TrEMBL record:
This is Cytochrome B. It is found in: Cell membrane. GO terms for cellular component: plasma membrane. Belongs to the cytochrome b561 family. Pfam families: Ni_hydr_CYTB (PF01292). Keywords: Cell membrane, Electron transport, Heme, Iron, Membrane, Metal-binding, Transmembrane, Transmembrane helix, Transport. Residues 7-175 form the Cytochrome b561 bacterial/Ni-hydrogenase domain. The lineage of its organism: Bacteria, Pseudomonadati, Pseudomonadota, Gammaproteobacteria, Alteromonadales. GO terms for molecular function: electron transfer activity; heme binding; metal ion binding.
Length: 175
């Protein structure tokens, strides 16, 4: 007899909340970097790059865990359109969490700036800057972050709606 899954696995919950903190930190760091030319900006940029590489690694791990883990069903009382939108928004979040660090890595590659990841290893860069490609990936990186913030706002709003209005356990399944 199969036991009904009511919560995401512990590994999925840890990855979810760790990445939530990481992504919000990265967004705020990115905003701080682009609005300042203070001396600390370069140190923050180095950390931003390292944590971006970590975010990409965690995303790949999260995706593998997600594929292998049973997940709770959404409430049977949810309208079909909301179920479809929930699934679409989750896959869109995964896609954006892939596009953002990948575009950041490519932006640095085409700027001919190697990425030193926590002084542990270095991701090489192009020998010669290619400013046109750098500009494309920089713009894509910024637009993807704006889209991520939009989708996250909807995601958080939906989680709070389910918790406080519908009281159907959707948020509790990830706590």
């Amino acid at each position: 007899m199969n036991k009904k899954v009511t919560h995401f696995s512990l590994s999925m919950r840890i990855l979810h909340w760790s990445m939530a903190v990481l992504l919000f930190s990265m967004v705020f760091a990115g905003l701080a970097m682009v609005s300042s030319l203070e001396p600390w900006q370069l140190a923050l940029l180095g950390l931003h790059k390292s944590f971006g590489a970590l975010a990409l690694t965690l995303l790949l791990l999260r995706f593998m865990v997600r594929i292998q883990s049973p997940i709770p069903n959404l409430p049977a009382t949810m309208p079909v359109i909301q179920v479809r939108l929930a699934r679409l928004s989750h896959w869109l979040l995964y896609l954006l969490m892939l596009i953002i660090p990948a575009s950041g890595l490519l932006m640095q590659y085409f700027a001919a700036r190697p990425i030193v990841v926590f002084d542990f290893f270095t991701i090489p860069a192009a020998k010669v800057p290619q400013i046109e490609y750098f500009a494309v990936f920089r713009e894509g990186h910024s637009l993807a972050v704006l889209l991520l913030l939009t989708v996250l706002t909807v995601h958080i709003g939906a989680a709070l709606y389910h918790h406080f209005v519908r009281k159907d356990g959707v948020l509790k399944s990830m706590l």
